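Protocol step 4 of 6: structure prediction from sequence.
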Amino acid sequence: MKKTLFTICLAGALLGTVSCKKFLTEDSLTKLDESKVYSDVNLIETSLKGVYSNFKNFRTDEQGLITMMGTDETQQGAFQMKSDPQKGGLDRYDLNLNSLLPHLANQWNIRWPVVNESAKIINGLEKLNAKAGTREGNLLGEAYFVRGFVDFELAMYWGEIPIRDISRESTLGFKRQPLKDVWTFIINDFTKASQLCPQTNAAGRATIGAAFAMLGKAYMSAPESTGLRNFDSARLAFEQMMGKYSLVAYKDLWDYTKSNTAESIFEFQFSPVYPNNNKLQFQIGSRAVQAAFGDGCYYSGYDKIVPTVHAYETVANGGIWEDGDLRKDESIRYDFTYYGTTPTLDPILWEDLGTNYDELKPHVKKYEDFRTDKHSDQKINNEWNSGKNIPVLRLGDIKLCYAECLNELGKTNDAVNVVNEVRTRAWGGTLPADKRWTALSQDAFRTAIMDERIRELFAENWRRIDLIRTGKFIEYVKTRNKWAKESGSLQAFQMRYPIPDVEMKLNDQITPEDQNPGYK
């Protein structure tokens, strides 16, 4: 019972940072009584490091792309859709999108051990009466942040979820809880994190700035039905942290020599060395490039996701990009010429995709890592080892969120000014007059900001959440995602993922009757 949801091997959280000598000469950490583990601040911090390691693994390899599929921003490549029709359901929204889909079961299963271990850390530190400003208090704040963040994702993707509060386990059990209770819990976690997290921290770990950023996002994203959506509370949270960060040149955000910039609020730390590589480029590069130049070309890959036409085309051609916007060529690869040679589709014509070939159409560029190229001094020679850091929270995103709040509060002129700050950076520091946003109605702003968020945050894994929280999911996906448009199957209930069948089989408190409506 509850094996997929809540069972976590303590060794996975602890042993990676404990020496073999210590393991052999002291009590086995896997056999320690939990009361001992979670009452020892050194063991707690070791466990928290394991939590962070598992947390960042959400964004590695193919599993790091699953929640980016099926939006109006990115979709699966044509060959992937043909060769894996089961996973193709994530874009077609057909009957393959169901509780048996292993890709979604994995998304569910990788998150719960992180939530569970964070909950145990929180319970232990609360018993130690951890205070703000102490080592224990800092760790408690970080654990609140991680649990809150992962619960935030789970609630956005699946709706009602179990609440993992160890102190209330006998009351809550392991069943799905009402949305209002779930979002109250998430907001409370971020509120406590904002009171306890340190001002500064090691790269890849939470700070007070990250806590306030997510508190603001939680207030913006809580479903209206809960009564917890509060744009003024979100505004106040953002105002508490924005001054700690500053915008940098957009290209610097994707320069692996300039990681953790002044804009970075929370960033997953990777490197092009196994096992700390993220493997993303292996998944998002071009198969035509791979066929022509091999794995040693840093933008080879397997087209697991590609931009939608809306996300890569110019405004004149029905897309989002305006002349002079520097974000366009930093975000999306349009030219596949490699050291003077332009690849063709000839080596992959066996795929027999008809008019659907997209291997040489625009691709995601942000995560390309030249260190993996055969011409690099590092001699890695395989894009599977791509290892750029991945930004999770950064100021450009938060400024646009803040502008949304201002608009919803009736301060649209102020909101426009904030967006123009972000757009000024996008034009290299000088925003042409014809590219400056001017007077907009509140409704016009709501429409315009959604395209601006693609320009600023393309393929940074916020789009599905943006579409859900704004109520634009069905409207935009069914008209802008090629596969969803062709299938015509998308229905409102598919805005949420189905609870995995394996969870219902192993957790007797989540039964088929608890499944999200519309799924069998």
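Step 5 (inspection) to follow. The longest strand covers residues 264-268.
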